[in-house]
Every structure is written in structure tokens, then in C-alpha cells.
Amino acid sequence: GREIQPGRRLGTELADRARYWAEVGGLFHSDELPGYGITEKEVEEVKRALGCGDLDAFILVFESREKAEEALRAAWERALEALQGVPEETRAANPDGTTRYMRPRPGSARMYPETDVRPIRITKDWIEKLKKELPEPPEKTLERLVEKYSLPRDIAWKLFDTQQLYLFEELVEKTGAPPLLIASTLTNTLVSLRREGVPVENISEQQLASVLAYIAQGAMAKEAIPDVLKLLATNPGIAVEDALKSLGGSITEEELRKIVREVLAENSQYVREKGERAFGKIMGLVMEKVRGKADGRLVSEVVRDELRKFTS
């Protein structure tokens, strides 16, 4: 017959039911016969006795009359269920990944009060109290993150999906760093570092808060976040301040302007030929020198300002 699972046919399902309800060893299906010691002649005699046509099949059960009738009844009921679709039942897993009938689904007869627990009176006041204590629905949480913190919807969803929401809001409140930067650090930067094999689990929430606070205070460039976090993760116990120092720390705006002027002077001919169109190249050269030590936005502003002065 046609397989309904790899190596399992409808006949197998009928046999499973018979085994469960009648505790028989199994069934003989006419499509398996002759065989198992049953001859062709005996098969034909059974067909004649049952009045089977060319498209009919039959089942044989060799057991006591009581068990045989129970087995046939179970198989008959399963055959009728097959005409309705997939039956509602509890199934067990087989080693090869297929499933077999285990038992019927429990019905209302199995639902009864717990005898070991005292009854609890459910009052309207209690229900109202519980309603007020219910957590915020996911869709409202997402909308709040988008509206309150101006987060892109995909990043808001990542915060919610990775269970970083509470840490995010705590860091926003404690550090004063931009919400989008905090969210991106939690959902992108830390994830990328973990994929690189960096043990980010070594970074404490306090260290993370300190890093973001330094950025909010202007004492650290956001571009330095990956390097600082990597250093903290691979050197458990190191202070954030020491990590910044080992990476060269940040530079002041005046130090940044000095570097920009030096780059302009080194590329003076190119700058005079291109004018303000030299911004892209100069910006790239400056960033090579100050990446992680100065905020990219500040670098851009200083480069434009110094470039304008240089070409005027």
C-alpha cells in the first residue's frame, strides 16, 4: 500500500490501534498475503467467505475471540477516521523519526480538581489587580520603543526578541548615551564580537554602562566601542579607564584640528586642485589617524571647517 510515512502504511496504523486496544501481536493484511504460512488457496477461501470484490481488502487476527473482535473493532474505527483526515491522538516518536499511535487524546473525563491543593477563591478585585500587573503586550512594547526612543523598528524588535529590553532602558537612564547607539551596541556590536569568538559574556553590565557613559560625556568616540569591548572581554577585571588608555584614549578637538591641518599640508597640491571636493579623501586620511579616538561627526565638522579655511 501507499506509505503515509517512510516505511509506514495505513495498515501499520490499523495494527498500532489493534495492539493498543486489544493487546494483540498485530494484524494480517490481505495485501501482504499469501505469506506468513497462509497459502494462496486459503486467501481465496477467505475472500469468498467475506464476499470480497477486486477492490476489497480484509484483515485477519489470530487471537481469542474476545481479543480478536476488539482488535478488529479498533482497526475498523481507525479506518473510518482515515476517511475524515488526520485523527486527534497522542503519538510517540520512533527511532527513525516517524511516529506511531501512543494513546487517545485525553478528554474532559481526565479534567478534575487537584485534590492536594486547597481551593482558591477568584474575586473580581483580584482579577482587576492582576490586569493592572500584566506585562506590556509585545506590539505595544515595540510601538513604545519606536516612538519614545526613535528606534528603527527592526532594532526595536531585536531588543525585544533577544530579551535585552530591560538592560537597554536601564542603560538609557543611567548613561545618557543616545538610545540608538545603546540599542545598536546590544543588538549588533556584541553579537558581531561573539561571532568573532570574543567572550563577550565576560563584560559586565557595569562595564558596559561605563563605556556608554564615557561616550555620552565626550571622553570616548563611539567608533572605539568594538575595540574597547573586545579588550574588556579578553581581559576580565580591567577597568574601562585603563582599557581606554591602552588603546590610546581620546583626543581633544584642538588635537584633532592639528592632525587635520597636518593632513591638509601633506596633501596641499591635491587640495588646491580639488578644493572642497577634496573632502572625501582628506576625511579618509584623517580617520585613519584618529579612528576610535574622536567621534566621526566631530571629525567631519572639523575637516570641513579646516578645509574651508585652507582653500579660502
From TrEMBL:
Gene Ontology biological-process entries: glutaminyl-tRNAGln biosynthesis via transamidation; translation
Ranges where the Asn/Gln amidotransferase domain occurs: 166-307
InterPro entries in the cross-refs: Asn/Gln-tRNA_amidoTrfase_suB/E, Asn/Gln_amidotransferase, Asn/Gln_tRNA_amidoTrase-B-like, GAD-like_sf, GAD_dom, GatB_C_1, GatB_Yqey_C_2, GatE
Keyword set, alphabetical order: ATP-binding, Ligase, Nucleotide-binding, Protein biosynthesis, Transferase
Record GO terms (molecular function): aminoacyl-tRNA ligase activity; ATP binding; glutaminyl-tRNA synthase (glutamine-hydrolyzing) activity; transferase activity
Cellular component, GO annotation: cytoplasm
Segments for region (Disordered): 90-112
Name of the protein described by the UniProt record: Glu-tRNA(Gln) amidotransferase subunit GatE
